[in-house]
Amino acid sequence: MLTRRTALLSAVAATALSAVSARTAAAAPHPAELVRLTLPAPSGPHPVGTVALRLVDTARPDPWITAQPYRELMISIRYPARDIGGHPRAPQMLPGEAAGFAAVNNLADVPADKVDWAATRTHAHEGAPVDRGRGPYPVVCYSSGAGDPRSLGTTLCDDLASRGYVVVMLDHTYDATAVQFPDGRVEHTVLPAEYDKAYPDKKRITALLKKTVAVRVADTRFLLDALPRALPRELRGTPDWDRVGMFGHSAGGFTALQAMHDDRRIVAGANLDGVVAYVQDDGDSGNLSTVAVEGLDRPFLLLGKDGNDLSTVPSWNALWRHSRGPREGLTLRGAEHGTFTDEEAMVPQLARRLGLSRKTVVNLIGTVAPASAISAERACLASFFDRRLRDRSDTGLPGRVPEVQPFAR
Q1: Contact of 26 with 102, CB cutoff 8 Å
Q2: Which pLDDT belongs to residue 135?
Q3: Is 76 in contact with 150 (CB distance < 8 Å)?
Q4: How much is the pLDDT for 15?
Q5: Which domain of life is it from (predicted)?
Q6: Residue 284 three-state SS
Q7: At what angle do helices 20-27 and 95-103 cross, to 10 degrees?
Q8: What CATH code is carried by the domain that includes residue 221?
Q9: Contact between 384 and 270 (Cβ < 8 Å)
Q10: What is the count of structural domains for the chain?
């Protein structure tokens, strides 16, 4: 489930998190010398608007910080906009989030202190008025990989919004590298410290993996409870709460399907390269989740990196065999685990500017051409949700996407 992310996070001393700002400021070159990154523009017909919201679950003490009597979350909502004039492009990460991302660097062999992570702008415009002409729109929630911020799924989320979806990007506080709240507070991940406490006891590591997913699923269910009432006035009536899907990457893909299993409000789910068992390696057997053991009766998509399919990922095989609803399985040839995040757009730029080795690039995002990978992922997600949330039958795969191969069954 956590695979590469767990290994990377566990290598980071927990004490580094308390010194994020000081260490980043001391190590970083002058801002003019830092590498700045761009993200690809969405491919749909709509411009994209965005708002960020803080949600508080007063009925649930925080499971990671036991002294806190409530659970506090940040989300970003992407939506089709009517007019973006005068509305600035939103940052991919706020300054505190960028500093936290640099401190717990999930991009192995990338010198994080040479990148201006806070400078990247998305293609979503802050506070832009919603386009109500074609709404209400289906809702798709997004959960990132363990230790990743919600912002690392920006490329795919902005694209879905540009195609006529309301997309809700969810940060799992104290799991994501850093979450910045409206008052300026930044809450950092506790996963490195939790993993270090559990290692090398396999039972304790399994318990940590179970807790991580359980917290994420509870966050998702609270989101579905709270958001219809918490929406800003200008967005009310825009989401169609009878058409809710969810997707995620790695542990976020596990979260999407487990939440779908536990909550019937989610009618379709897509898992991007996430096992659905409490294991550290994709090929490990055992420790299956309830979604893998009991299956699903609604549509789901498994989209894996090169080599991940029903024959190599035991938990996917169990889920497939036990499910009764429509199932779709695809492999993205030449892809690595990070291919399904914004890393696919970022790493090639970092390689050019920082002289990263070919080995480093391949380890992070595989051998598939970045533009082809991004186009294929967008097409797979749009096709799946168009068919499952909009009843469209003319967006099938994989014939038009040569990089994608159906699972052998």
Answers
A1: no
A2: 82
A3: yes
A4: 26
A5: Bacteria
A6: coil
A7: 80
A8: 3.40.50.1820
A9: yes
A10: 1
